[in-house]
TrEMBL record:
Keywords for the protein's UniProt record, in alphabetical order: Activator, RNA-binding, Transcription, Transcription regulation
Assembly with partners or alone: Homohexamer.
The name this protein goes by in its record: Hut operon positive regulatory protein
Native source organism of the sequence: Sedimentibacter saalensis
Cited InterPro entries: Regulatory_HutP, Regulatory_HutP_sf
Amino acid sequence: MNKRGIGKIALLLAMDDGDMENLKEFYEKKNYVIYRGQAGSMDAKKIVAAIETAASREDIIRENYHEEHALYHAIIEALSGYCRGQVMLGEVLRSAGLTFTIVRGTLIEDDPSSGNWIAVVLYGQIGSPRRGFEHEAVGMGIQPI
C-alpha cells in the first residue's frame, strides 16, 4: 500500500520541523483541509477549546452536530493518547506544550470511496510544570464525519 492514510498525514505535519509548507500544499492539492497550531496549558479543557476554536475559525468543520461531534471525539482520543490514558494535566501537576494538527479529508489518500474523516494529532512536551522535567508525547484521534 503506497497511499498514506489521514493519520500518517496528520502525524507528518505535526512532527515536521522543516518543509511543513510544501507538505501542507501537497496534501491541500489532494483536497485535504489542514490546520497546524500550538497550545499549552495545565488545563486539558483549554487545549480542547483551542483545537475546537481553530477548527471552527479555519472552516474545517461547520456548525452541525455530526461534524462537531466527530471533531470532539477525535480530540479526546488524541488527548487520551497524549496523556497516556489519563486525560488530566493540572490536577496531577502536569503541563503540556504542544503542536496540534487537524486534517480533514478521505481516510486514504486518493481514495474518495474511503469517505470523509477528521484526524487530530497532538505532539509536544508533557510533564512537571518545571523546565527540564518534561518529555515528548504524541496522541492521535481519527473519526468519520
